[in-house]
Design brief:
It is built from 7 helices and 13 strands. The protein is of the alpha/beta class. Strand 12 (202-207) and strand 13 (210-215) form a beta hairpin.
């Protein structure tokens, strides 16, 4: 029986490109939807050039593909719900709605998942920045739409307030306090609804708030690695 599938990827950045390459090596076909015709994934997949909330374009993608996925969180969940067939988007949109909004995400992590997060406050206007303690360092981030340093302002002193106030007036934001840390690690988990695979712990190094290098396995103790994977 032919196991070849056509996979639709929403988002054609570097992650979409890498997914497409892996899928092609496994014998599958790939169609990518992205607003940029020359996005990285365009070099290795068929393209639908459209915005992420273009329902007609998403409908075309759904009709052409057996299964859909997305490469990052800045896609439109409502539009996806309007076009996908049952089971066509295995990961669904519930977690997407949480992960694409930093306010929802932090509330979920701290109040439902029991995870300790860096001190933060929700910012809905520039007035929320009136009484900052400049003995601390902060980063102001838009609740939605930000990535790779976009939609962020680092606040080290009063000199940064003008830019921060402008961002705060443009969108709902979260104001995070910087915390001292030795290094950042992350764990990728993959599942199909029945089986779950936990990948080796990776160490992430950032430059100017943008991921610069990932080292696998992370340079940590076996005990900490097992704790992170658990």
């Amino acid at each position: 029986m032919n196991s070849t599938k056509t996979i639709g990827i929403i988002g054609g950045g570097q992650l979409g490109q890498m997914m497409a390459i892996s899928a092609i090596y496994m014998g599958h076909k790939v169609v990518t939807l992205d607003p940029a015709a020359d996005c990285p994934a365009s070099k290795v997949s068929d393209m639908i050039v459209a915005d992420y909330d273009d329902v007609a374009a998403l409908q075309e993608l759904a009709q052409r593909c057996d299964v859909l996925t997305y490469e990052f969180e800045n896609v439109d969940a409502d539009s996806l719900d309007a076009v996908v067939k049952p089971g066509q988007l295995p990961q669904g949109t519930d977690l997407l709605r949480i992960s694409q909004n930093r306010i929802f995400e932090k509330d979920f992590l701290s109040n439902k998942a029991g995870v300790t997060v860096a001190p933060y406050q929700v910012v809905t206007s520039s007035q929320d920045l009136d009484h900052l303690d400049f003995s601390k360092k902060y980063v102001l981030k838009t609740a939605t739409g930000g990535y790779d340093g976009h939609g962020q302002v680092v606040i080290k002193s009063a000199e940064n307030l003008a830019d921060a106030r402008q961002l705060a007036e443009s969108a709902d934001c979260v104001l995070e306090e910087f915390v001292s840390f030795n290094l950042e690690i992350s764990v990728i988990v993959s599942g199909n609804g029945k089986d779950v695979t936990v990948f080796p712990v990776q160490e992430n190094i950032h430059r100017n708030n943008i991921l610069s290098k990932t080292i696998v396995p992370a340079r940590i103790s076996d005990q900490l690695s097992k704790q992170a994977q658990a």
